[in-house]
Amino acid sequence: MSIDLPFHKSWFDDNEINEVIETLKSGWLTTGPKTKRFEDDFKDYIGCGYAIGLNSCTAGLHLALATKRFKAGDEVITTTMTFPATANVIMHERLCPVLVDVEPGTLTIDVNQILEKITPKTRAIMPVHFAGHPCDMDPVMELAEKYKLLIIEDAAHALETKYKGRKIGGLGNPTAFSFYANKNITTGEGGMLTTNDESLDEMVRVMRLHGLSRDAWKRFGKSGFSQWELRLPGFKYNMADINAALGIHQLKKINNFLKIRKQYAAMYDEAFSQIPELEILEKRDYAEPSYHLYIIALRLEQLTITRDQFVDKIQSAGVGVAIHYQALHLQPLYKKKFNTRLDDYPVATSYSARILSLPLYPRMSVQDIERVSNVVADIISCNRR
């Protein structure tokens, strides 16, 4: 099988390349001036008080949770339709992830089911802005205020996303972003945690680098040498300047990237709107999505093939695709550890067997979008019941 149209391909030009070369020549590769510059630029873009550069979105979720030092066995509510990292960080803190089903159409957490999951042990809610579409945050924040719960937003898919006109990351909750290779902008590996809480910013900056009082750049900075002190049992989660060098210029391209993604998503919508065997995801009135993923759901009862067979056929045509996601409650770990059942999360169970993500990125051309659309339509046409 030869894939000549990959699922994703990053867009770099001489700006990123030259910034990386400059970083290499400077001799300073780890957390330093480039990371600080990227943090400041990102903070200004989001419109938040603080932005902390990290090596992943996972690190942001983990640190936001770890700073609260909840008791072992306390509960954190999140969605079953997410990448394992969201719930893994909960378990790393010896807390219990409590899964909630998703709403049809957006695959974001069903806010109407959160209340019934709240118990005296509930300490936090971790909503996931899925595929670039925001969760309905007002009801989530109302529940959090009523029951005195922490909110940590998983915005791995949601860099440019807005909720009721406000950028995700600027709603006042700790929010973790991803700059992984296939994200809307990339630093290769990397993430950012945003917050308006100065004390959280200070603690996360200590915890992201082993719990040391000063990072290397500050210890050897212009103010002279200063020895570090171990303040907390922290982690190795800091962003490196060689990654931040990419992010500085990727962030400058973000508005153009979003414009192209939005155009291509609209082309897909038009191509698939008249195919009854396909369901395309919806956009709620409160949402301005980032168009991170373009997901289609097959109406399998109208087809003679399974989703996995559909994936094989589209990849055999040279088009790369992905699955976002096989829901957590279907994973062996959760079935064994938490005794999760398919019937407990019927919406996510159904979508898990039917969804696939098509290529959607600025390096594609209009002809690429048309090619993918035609391949999908041809497979549907040949496999109708």
Summarize the topology.
Blueprint (H helix, E strand, L loop, with lengths): L13 H13 L6 H14 L3 E5 L2 H10 L8 E5 L4 H9 L3 E5 L21 E5 L10 H11 L2 E2 L1 E3 L6 E2 L2 E2 L7 E4 L12 E5 L2 H10 L8 H4 L21 H12 L1 H19 L5 E3 L6 E2 L5 E5 L8 H10 L15 H6 L8 H7 L2 E4 L7 H17 L3
Parallel strand pairs: 2-3, 2-4, 4-5, 6-9
Antiparallel strand pairs: 1-10, 7-8, 7-12, 9-10, 11-13, 13-14
Helix pairs in contact: 1-8, 2-8, 3-4, 9-13
3D architecture notes:
- The protein is α/β, with parallel strands linked by helices and 385 residues long.
- It has 2 domains: 14-252, 3-Layer(aba) Sandwich (Aspartate Aminotransferase, domain 2); 255-382, Aspartate Aminotransferase, domain 1 (Alpha-Beta Complex), CATH 3.90.1150.
- It is built from 13 helices and 14 strands.
- The chain has helices at 14-26, 33-46, 57-66, 84-92, 137-147, 198-207, 216-219, 241-252, 254-272, 307-316, 332-337, 346-352, 366-382; strands at residues 50-54, 75-79, 96-100, 122-126, 150-151, 153-155, 162-163, 166-167, 175-178, 191-195, 278-280, 287-288, 294-298, 355-358.
- A 4-stranded mixed sheet has the order 1-10-9-6, sandwiched between helices.
- α1 (14-26) packs antiparallel against α8 (241-252).
- The protein is globular.
- The two termini are 27 Å apart.
- The model has no long low-confidence stretch (mean pLDDT 96).
